[in-house]
Automatic annotation (TrEMBL), chain A:
It is a multi-pass membrane protein. It comes from Litoreibacter roseus. Gene3D superfamilies: MetI-like. It comes from the Bacteria. This is Peptide ABC transporter permease. The gene is dppB. Belongs to the binding-protein-dependent transport system permease family. It holds the Pfam family BPD_transp_1_N. It is found in: Cell membrane. Keywords: Cell membrane, Membrane, Transmembrane, Transmembrane helix, Transport. GO terms for cellular component: plasma membrane.
TrEMBL record, chain B:
One of its GO terms (biological process) is transmembrane transport. It comes from Litoreibacter roseus. GO terms for cellular component: plasma membrane. Belongs to the binding-protein-dependent transport system permease family. This is ABC transporter permease. It is found in: Cell membrane. It comes from the Bacteria. Its main location: membrane. CDD domains: TM_PBP2. Keywords: Cell membrane, Membrane, Transmembrane, Transmembrane helix, Transport. It is a multi-pass membrane protein.
Length: 314, 289
């Protein structure tokens, strides 16, 4: 178990290092001198020189990179040009909001996607299967920010059932918090549900034709037991791995969803940073999401390991 | 011997078989129709009898759909239908060009990594994994932010973000194909590597790449709409479905039609490419289902 984990970690480390190189290289794409914005209108040469020293822009690029990565390892991703707050602090402040959105969306995705996938695999080739597939493909094709706008139009503007925007921390008022978050979570969740349904369907299809399912049926077990206990348990492994891979979709979807519902989370932070030309924040966010994705993959590997008894001896 | 000849003579040419399977696939045909429709609209935009998409009419601001303006007018009196049609051009252009960039960079790198293996494969594969770790849209947003907001830069950003998908796919395919007997024999008769790659490897890895490219155009169109929605793609006053939605969300109460049509258009064109891609996958798959 431990050696398996350590081996995975050993593969992850060079990947994370490469990501840091890419993220660092991003700032070199900037046209012109980014300091001209910071130095203000006068562009006083002395101020410029001071800033160059401060941001180590006089050093050779590899040295700049090492300094940057060294700081990043100590949790220092630079400071926001705009608010003068450390980037790590900004991210840590916004992250819980997005995690709440992500968790609620995943609940929607799992509650819709997995049963739909099981059902359509079980009834392969029937009308149920066809309808589930059409709905899933439509779910993949609808831009979820548009779905959000349409829901605001119906639920908030026309029927005035739920608030159209805002955020209430769950610690402050749990019920209100869920009420404001439920629509954004639904929008984000349906997009993921479509992907999850397709994965569940193909995993279940693979399992349902295997010999042990026929054996289970031959033993006279009830269909319910065959489908849930025998088939689904075995289909679960790829589903769990793929759910971890949904992390990227979740974060990317959160950017747009938070923008539409004006939720002050991680996604809104990215967009605001982009418009304020707050490059250190943008870099920090890309780095954090990429590392987060790799960690999710590690977790998925672990789950894979735990769910599949055959691997435990390894 | 005669029997064998008889058998092969009855088999249709591979192209016919693929087309037949594809034609029998009604959802793929629907996808083809949708894609063709939007392509035609985008190409015909300059000659269709529609008002100038940038012409403002302050006497006809936010008018509901009518005989004069089939899809209504926007917040400064521009014709929504006309902007939709020109927006189709931006959307499809972004989809096709960004995927073109990803294919042109990704496929050769994937072939090199898969065919030669060794350290060059290790370098390319690690870079691919690192790029894949950043969520597609986050990477595109970051690139668009650093390159500066414009439709061209959005296409470059989306193209670069999609490149690792093609590297990984091509590499995997090449690894399967390069051990085939026909590649072995090509090597045995001393064919130069350049010719082995272009004549034997490339044509045999092409089908899955075509499928992936079609499906990625769908993703890229949504990505362009998302970037334009965030203000990082097509810049006003040039029309784009994403930026139309961005404006529309401020007028939901007064002019809901402004938000309705661009969303439907994105949905239909993306659905078209998704259906087409799924259909191509089934048609090109040599195994029978």
């Amino acid at each position: 178990m431990l050696s398996f984990f350590l081996r995975r970690l050993a593969i992850a480390i060079p990947t994370i290092l490469l990501i840091s190189v890419f993220v660092f290289a991003l700032q070199k794409l900037l046209p012109g001198d980014p300091l001209l914005v910071l130095a203000g209108e006068e562009r006083d040469p002395e101020v410029l020189e001071f800033l160059r020293e401060k941001y180590r822009l006089n050093d050779p690029i590899p040295i700049q990179y090492l300094a940057w990565v060294g700081n990043a390892l100590q949790g220092d991703l630079g400071t926001s040009f705009r608010t003068n707050q450390p980037v790590t602090e900004l991210i840590a402040e916004k992250l819980p909001v997005t995690i709440q959105l992500a968790v609620m969306s995943l609940i929607f995705a799992v509650l819709i996607g997995i049963p739909a996938g099981i059902l359509s695999a079980y009834r392969k080739g029937t009308l149920t299967d066809y309808v589930a597939n059409v709905v899933a493909l439509s779910g993949l094709s609808i831009p979820n920010f548009w779905l959000g706008i349409m829901l605001i139009l119906l639920v908030s503007v026309k029927w005035q059932l739920l608030p159209a925007s805002g955020y209430v921390p769950p610690g402050e008022d749990l019920w209100q918090s869920i009420r404001t978050m439920i629509m954004p979570a639904f929008v984000l969740g349906t997009a993921l549900a479509a992907t999850l349904m397709r994965h569940t369907r193909s995993a279940m299809l693979g399992v349902l034709t295997s010999d042990y399912i026929r054996t289970a049926r031959a033993k006279g077990l009830s269909e319910r037991r065959v489908v849930f206990k025998h088939a689904f348990r075995n289909a679960l492994t790829p589903i769990v791995t793929l759910t971890a891979l949904l992390f990227g979709e979740l974060i990317a979807g959160a950017v747009l969803t938070e923008q539409i519902f004006t939720i002050p989370g991680f996604g809104k932070l990215v967009v605001d940073a982009v418009f304020n030309r707050d490059y250190a924040v943008v870099q920090g966010i890309v780095l954090v999401t990429a590392v987060g994705f790799i960690l999710m993959n590690l977790l998925a590997d672990m789950a894979y390991f735990l769910l599949n008894p055959r691997l435990r001896g390894a | 011997m005669a029997l064998v000849d008889q058998d092969t003579a009855d088999l249709p040419a591979p192209e016919n078989r693929v087309w037949k399977k594809f034609r029998g696939h009604s959802s793929a045909m629907l996808g083809g129709v949708l894609v063709t429709f939007f392509l035609a609209v985008a190409l015909l935009a300059p000659i269709l009898p529609i008002p100038d998409p940038a012409a403002t009419d302050w006497g006809a601001v936010r008018q509901a759909p009518s005989a004069a303006h089939w899809m209504g007018t926007d917040e400064i009196g521009r014709d929504v239908l006309s902007r939709m049609i020109w927006g189709a051009q931006a959307s499809l252009l972004a989809g096709v060009i960004s995927v073109g960039i990803a294919v042109i960079i990704g496929v050769p790198l994937g072939i090199i990594a898969g065919y030669f293996g060794g350290w060059i494969d290790a370098v390319i594969s690690r870079c691919t994994e690192a790029l894949l770790a950043a969520p597609f849209l986050i990477l595109a947003i970051a690139l668009a932010a650093f390159l500066g907001p414009s439709l061209t830069n959005a296409m470059i950003a989306i193209g670069i973000s999609a490149t690792p998908l093609f590297i990984r796919l091509t590499r995997g395919q090449v690894i399967n194909v390069k051990v085939e007997d026909y590649v072995e024999s090509a090597r045995a008769i001393g064919l130069p590597t350049r010719l082995i790659l272009s004549r034997y490897i490339f044509p045999n890895v092409l089908p899955p790449i075509l499928v992936q490219a079609t499906l990625t155009i769908a993703t890229a169109i949504i990505a362009e709409a998302s970037l334009s929605f965030l203000g990082l793609g097509q810049q006003p006053p040039a029309p784009s479905w994403g930026s139309m939605l961005n404006t529309a969300k401020n007028f939901l109460n007064q002019a809901p039609w402004m938000a309705l049509y661009p969303g439907i258009a994105i949905f239909l064109v993306v659905l078209g490419f998704n259906l087409l891609g799924d259909g191509l996958r089934d048609a090109l798959d040599p195994r029978e289902h």
